[in-house]
């Protein structure tokens, strides 16, 4: 990139520090209670990308001293069968966090699957209970990508109070919850979606932009407000995001790179919240990651 002005928000470095903290906390939990934090992943079907993501999460668990359990179900699994498998994990005291790898096959009711997760083990922040907690500013698990975005903004001293935040996208696991978390930080939030009119004009008003539209290079540099903080939550083939990175870097003050920005924070927060769940389910005595507003 030439003639760039934006400072890149290094999610890889921030995530590495969070992994270190999580490993320390997992070890403290084992030493003080004998409990090994455990994350269970549920994969339906044989989608190669989903299988790769699950392996990445299992590898990260191993490095952080967190046990992992893998449940792989055939693509023909019904909603009822998936719900039953998740309920069994919810009832298992040795499991502290449950992740259903999405997307699931089209014939499965994904929402029913998510709601089968015990809220106390919803470390991916996908249940209605977790969304309500985010919306009301109550204790609970954050959706991992939105929560990772907020931690990254904290790390780079972005004061959200009074800022106009524009969110592109309204998915239940990214767009909607990140808007709730921004609102909780006293930002003024505008949601944009596929039926929004005058999108470039709205983007131009954003002090903070979160792009989660699922379209490569969708956000153009000339749409951006000079000095805006730009969070690119997209990832596409060839390492492209939802934002034209080269053009945005000439306008924004802060920008998440793709890759290496939002992505690493997602898994890091998943593991931190798994330890939080293990602590909460095992008794007091070990600090929760949610008590820290930034990575130390």
Automatic annotation (TrEMBL):
Pfam family, one: THF_DHG_CYH
UniProt EC number: 1.5.1.5, 3.5.4.9
Catalytic activity: (6R)-5,10-methenyltetrahydrofolate + H2O = (6R)-10-formyltetrahydrofolate + H(+); (6R)-5,10-methylene-5,6,7,8-tetrahydrofolate + NADP(+) = (6R)-5,10-methenyltetrahydrofolate + NADPH
InterPro entries reported in the protein's UniProt record: Aminoacid_DH-like_N_sf, NAD(P)-bd_dom_sf, THF_DH/CycHdrlase, THF_DH/CycHdrlase_cat_dom, THF_DH/CycHdrlase_CS, THF_DH/CycHdrlase_NAD-bd_dom
Record pathway: One-carbon metabolism; tetrahydrofolate interconversion
Keywords linked to the UniProt accession: Amino-acid biosynthesis, Histidine biosynthesis, Hydrolase, Methionine biosynthesis, Multifunctional enzyme, NADP, One-carbon metabolism, Oxidoreductase, Purine biosynthesis
Domain Tetrahydrofolate dehydrogenase/cyclohydrolase NAD(P)-binding residue range list: 143-278
Positions annotated to bind NADP(+): 169-171
Annotated Tetrahydrofolate dehydrogenase/cyclohydrolase catalytic domain residues: 9-124
Family to which the UniProt record says this protein belongs: Belongs to the tetrahydrofolate dehydrogenase/cyclohydrolase family.
HAMAP family registered for this protein in UniProt: THF_DHG_CYH
Binding partners and assembly: Homodimer.
Reported function: Catalyzes the oxidation of 5,10-methylenetetrahydrofolate to 5,10-methenyltetrahydrofolate and then the hydrolysis of 5,10-methenyltetrahydrofolate to 10-formyltetrahydrofolate.
Protein name as it appears in the record: Bifunctional protein FolD
Organism: Kribbella deserti
